[in-house]
Amino acid sequence: MAYNECVLATNIKSLGEAFSMNRNSHTSSLWRVRLLAGLMMFSLSLALHGSRTLADEGDAAKANEPNESPPRPAPQVDEGTSEPTQRAFEMNPSDESLAHARALSFAFRNSAQKALPSVVTIFSRSKEASAANPVLDIIGGERAQKFDSVGSGVIISSDGLILTNHHVVADAAIIEVRLQDGRQFRAENPRSDPQSDVAILKIDVHGGLPAAEIGDSDTLFVGDWVIAIGSPFMIESSVSAGIISGMGRYQSLSRSVKGQFLQTDAAINPGNSGGPLLDLEGRVVGINTAISSRSGGFEGIGFAIPINRAIWIKNELLKHNKVRRAYVGVSASSVPYDLAQQLDLPDNTGALVNRVVPGYPAAKAGLRTGDVIIDFAGGRVHSNAGFAELVLQSPIGIALPMTIIRDGQRLELQLELVEKLE
Length: 422
Hints:
- Helices cover 31% and strands 31% of the residues.
- It is of the alpha+beta class.
- The protein has a seven-stranded antiparallel sheet.
- α1 packs antiparallel against α2 (29-64).
- The protein is globular and about 65 Å long.
């Protein structure tokens, strides 16, 4: 029996007992009627109040129950093929994010699969016996005893021409190249340029080899996705991904190696040197060459030689067996902010001439101290290091255009570069 019903029955029972007790008394009938009516009203009021309280508690409990989401409608189906023709509900944010992630994954996969057959592992043994290479010690085995250096390279022509780093093959008595399919070849007479850390090798093969597609490093932007492929710690055909972290980083990697490099956070470790840095189309945009590290391992800062410079060096080595570097005869610095504002120059534009060397191309062309060079040989000058890079790769002995600002006026000059004496 419910609580309210118990209370009501108890009150009625008490009412009956009270009525019986007073039935034989001398109290008047009117008093008994009034007492009976009062007790009945009190019991009825108590019962109704309790019912409302229980009803309110039931509604509150239902309100706290979890709401069930309506079922998603099924996709429409083509009766002829039994295949979904369209989704009957819109894609939620998580679905859209997953679609973007899958698209990026697909781009990484295509880029890697396109370039992997052209990436090689290079083993070398120096002419003078050296201490054991810690990279090879990690792997051990017969190969570690035969070679003391391991690096990577990329095939850039189907006849077996390979691009790599100078330090991978420097002073090597034996150089072996292993392709992704497992074939091995002996490379002879490497040509290299220590100042740029670029080298080329040639292997003789029957039939064509898969050659990588060459990209354009001048079209890269900070934030672009890139992929590094190589043989870090002799783990061949390893792929890592990252972005271009910086452009035109002027670095001195050693006493002799200096210049502008691409900075990337794609993982580069010992053994990656000489391997390609790729864009998402699988085109080579750089040659991995060094890392900045306090531990000796990768810490998120790697450097690659821009492929445009590497190809220029390759051409110089093939044609002249050395790299001829041009000389203009000026000392320059970046344009100060106040001067750039005064001349209304865009950000990161120009090289300020601090000194002109008498008797050299700049002096002969009429360049003066205080001039601001903004264009040279058809290329925009972004800084003094950028100007040096343009001069370095420009042809020697040919009249080249130069645009300068002097006293707020734009002037056009012509000059012929000379070969820099070593």
